[in-house]
Amino acid sequence: MKKTYDLGRLRWTLTPYLPESWRVPFGKPDMPPVECRIPCSVQKALLDAGIIEDWLPGENYRKIEWIEHRHWIFETTVPGEYFTGKKHAFLNFEGLDHAGEIYLDDRKVFSFANSLQNYSVDISEYAEAGKDRRLRIVFTANPWWLGCFGKTSEMTCGKPRYYYTWDWTCRLVQTGVWDSVTLTERDGEETEWADIETGCSEGKGSLKLNCRLTGPSGGTAFVQLCSENGTVKEETLLINGDSFALEWEGLKVEPWQPNGTGEAALYELFVSVTSPEGETLDEFSRTVGFRSIEWRRTQGAPETADTWLCCVNGEPVFLQGVNWVPPLHDFADVTEDIYRELIDLYKSLGVNIFRVWGGAILEREIFYDLCDRAGIMVWQEFPQSSSAIVNYPSEDPAVIKMMTDTAETYIKRRKHHA
Questions:
Q1: Which residue from 141, 138, 134 is spatially nearest to 111, judged by alpha carbons?
Q2: Which among 134, 304, 373, 389 has most CB atoms closer than 10 A?
Q3: How far apart (Å, rounded) are the C-alpha atoms in residues 229 and 248?
Q4: How far apart are CA 137 and CA 14, in angstroms?
Q5: Could you tell me how far CA 160 lies from the centroid of its own chain?
C-alpha cells in the first residue's frame, strides 16, 4: 500500500548565500537562517521575519531586488519514522520556482529548471528505514530578464513572465516552494496517470477512463462513481500489463451547468488497484462533472468563419468572464481563503468563465476545485504571452521541447476538472 507524508508539516529553515558560495567548505551564509513554512516565497519568509519591508507601498519593491541575486536553501529534517523500508520511495515537488538542485544529506539527487513543471524524484536507494535524512532544496540565481515587454522570442525558460514587470504589476522575481512537497513510499505499482473524459448528451452521462501504472501489475482495478445519494455505477477490471481502461455510457447523472444556468453537479470517481495477491497497491479519487462543450458558428456566418458561439450541454451560453492573474504577485503565498473569497465574489457577479493568462502560471489544484463547485469554466492558456516588438515564441528546439513537455503536464494534471 502506498503511504504519503506531507513534508509541509515539518520545520523548515531558509538561508541565503552569495552565488555558489554554499558549495565550498568555507562558504558562509549571507545572513542567519530564518524559520519558514512551505509553500512560501523567499520574499514572504523574509517579510515575516522582519528582514525586509512590505514591497507593495510606493516603490518599496526596488529595495528588495537583491533577493534575485542570491542562492537560497530551504532545509528540513525528514524523520526516520517516515522511512519504513518499503521497496520504493519518492520525493514529489508540485511547484519549485525556478531552478536549482535537491540534496538528501550531502548527495545531490536531482536538478530542476522549470517553475511550471512538477517533479517526482526516486530516492529509493537512499531511504534507509528509520534513519533521519536532511533534505535541502537549493535555488540558484534567477534569469535577469525574459523579454518583457518587448520580445516573446526571448522567453526561453519556464519562469512566469510577469515577474519582470507587466501592465498590472511591478518587477518582483519570486523564488520559492509554491506548492506541496511530499514523500511517498510503496512496495508495488501505483497509478502513474489517469486520463478521464466525461460527456453529457440527451440527459445521459458518459465516462472514459484510461489508467497507466508505473509497471505491470496483473491484478485488478475497482472503479466506482458516486453521487451524494450513493453509487451510480461500479465495475471491477482485470489489469492487462501496465494499464487498464473502461468506457461507460448512459449514466443516470445530473449535468454540470455553468454559473447562472443551473446546478454545477459533481460526482466522485474512486479507483483502487489491487495486486494478484489481493493487496491494495494504490487508490485515488477525482471529482468530475458531466457536460458537453461545443463551438458553433453564429447565425448567418459563412462556412469559412470561426466558431464563436459556446454551447454547453447543447445550449448557447453567453460567456461572461474575466482575466485571472495570480491574486498575489508572490503566488506561492496565496492561501485557500484568498482563492475562495475571490471565486465566491466572481460567482456572485455572474461570472461563468476565467481566462487564466499564459504569462502567469498553472494555478493550484484548489483553484480548479473551487471553480468546479462555483460553475465557472476555465480557459487555461499554455505558458506563452504576446509582446510589443517580437510577437512569436522562440524557435530554439530545446525551448520548444521544454514548452511542449510543460503543456503536456498541464493537461495531465488538470484535464479531469469540469
A1: 138
A2: 373
A3: 19
A4: 10
A5: 14
Number of Cβ within 10 Å of residue 165's Cβ equals: 14
Instruction: Give the C-alpha separation, 309 to 294, whole Å.
Output: 8
- Return all residues near 346 (Cβ < 8 A) that are at least 6 apart: 322, 354, 374, 376
Tens digit of pLDDT at every position of the chain (418 positions): 889 999 999 999 999 999 999 999 889 999 999 999 999 999 999 999 999 999 999 999 999 999 999 999 999 999 999 999 889 999 999 999 999 999 999 999 999 999 999 999 999 999 889 999 999 999 998 988 887 778 999 989 999 999 999 988 999 999 999 999 999 999 988 999 999 999 999 989 999 999 999 988 889 999 999 999 999 999 999 998 999 999 999 999 999 999 999 999 999 999 999 999 999 999 999 999 999 999 999 999 998 999 999 999 999 999 999 999 999 999 999 999 999 999 999 999 999 999 999 999 999 999 999 999 999 999 999 998 888 899 899 999 999 999 999 999 999 999 999 9
Helix (H), strand (E) at residue 247: strand 243-251
Residue 363 Cα distances to 21, 93, 95, angstroms: 34, 15, 10
Residue 301: C-alpha distances to residues 160, 315, 325, 335, 377 (Å):
38, 18, 33, 45, 26
Q: Which residues pair with 386 in a beta bridge?
A: none
Residue 4: all three cell numbers together = 504519503
Residue 103: which of 70, 67, 133 has the closest Cα? 133
- Between strands 96-97 and 176-177, the pairing is antiparallel
| SS3 at position 398 | helix
Number of neighbouring beta carbons within 10 Å of residue 204? 14
pTM: 0.95
| CA-based R_g, the chain, Å | 23
Q: Which three cell numbers stand for residue 133?
A: 535524512
